[in-house]
Amino acid sequence: MENNGQVTDALQWGYSLANVSEIMTPCLDAAGVKSLLEIGSYAGELTEVLLEWAEGSGATVATVEPLPPDRLRDLVRRRPELELIEDTGVGALAGLSELPDAIVIDGDHNYYTLTQELDKIAEMAGDQALPLLLFHDVGWPHERRDTYYAPDRVPESERQPLAKDCTIAPGNPGLSDGGLPYEYAAAFEGGPKNGVLTAIEDFMKRNEGLELATVPVFFGMGMLWPKSAPWADEVRELIAPYNRNPVMERAEANRVAHLVRGHVDAATIREQQAKIARYEELLGRLLSSSSMGVAERLTKLRQRGNPVFTRQEIQDLLDQE
Ligand SMILES: C[S@@+](CC[C@H](N)C(=O)[O-])C[C@H]1O[C@@H](n2cnc3c(N)ncnc32)[C@H](O)[C@@H]1O
Predict the structure, then answer these.
(1) Is the predicted pLDDT of residue 238 greater than 70, yes or no?
(2) The pTM is what?
């Protein structure tokens, strides 16, 4: 399944897992997936790619989103075969009569929420093998740092110390002066019970017989499967060239560095524009004041026809595009 060669939001974050669909969908085929649940759909970019894949495979696709944006509702109207569950991941799982064959987990990127979702899946599986699990954000910034869409849904005792309206940058485990902006993020990276990859690793300690691959692009896609599944070898072989691929890792580090730099530059430009607006407003007031006329005449007299400034000069400056 191709993604038309498009980065879904070129020049922006590249937040959608649709960007790695060519790696994801052959694994879904190999695992014989006939029912798939996506947790966290946002605008439905991955959802739409999955629906196209499902047309060929005959699979059903359901997606979970507590706050469906208009673009997702449009997708539901255009693709009536899509089931939209307006709930959190844990709430949606609790309402299912059985587990789907594959679950893509890309909801709230914090240890507590992901652990709740994973433990619910394990509880529902019981003695049966776990489904194929796919994750977004197993790389920087979420790998070892929680962020929260809705901190109120996480008990305070289970939450990392919170930073609000903060910016973070790679290589800085605290908060940075400029970088990727988050409404709510853990004030520190690392340590126990912090981040998406930490939650997956801890889940693997509680549940034996699982294998994890991580594809280090577009913030990192993780894939977790039971080693005992009849399709395990095929999935491992398909994902092997991308698993912890060092070239992809370098390309991602480079992409993220540029993304962060773009945010820092944009913030600087916004500050400079605000400063210029203040200068323009002051110059406008000066121009329209009668004292300015007096000052202009005075400087003409004192500088014998070579005034330090003229009002026309100021007006020309203000008229510049
Ligand atoms: C990164 S976006 C998903 C992107 C999408 N999967 C894609 O690849 O195109 C994460 C979404 O998860 C939703 N979300 C937040 N908390 C959630 C939760 N507890 N359960 C499910 N979804 C959640 C957010 O509203 C947001 O729209």
Answers:
(1) yes
(2) 0.88
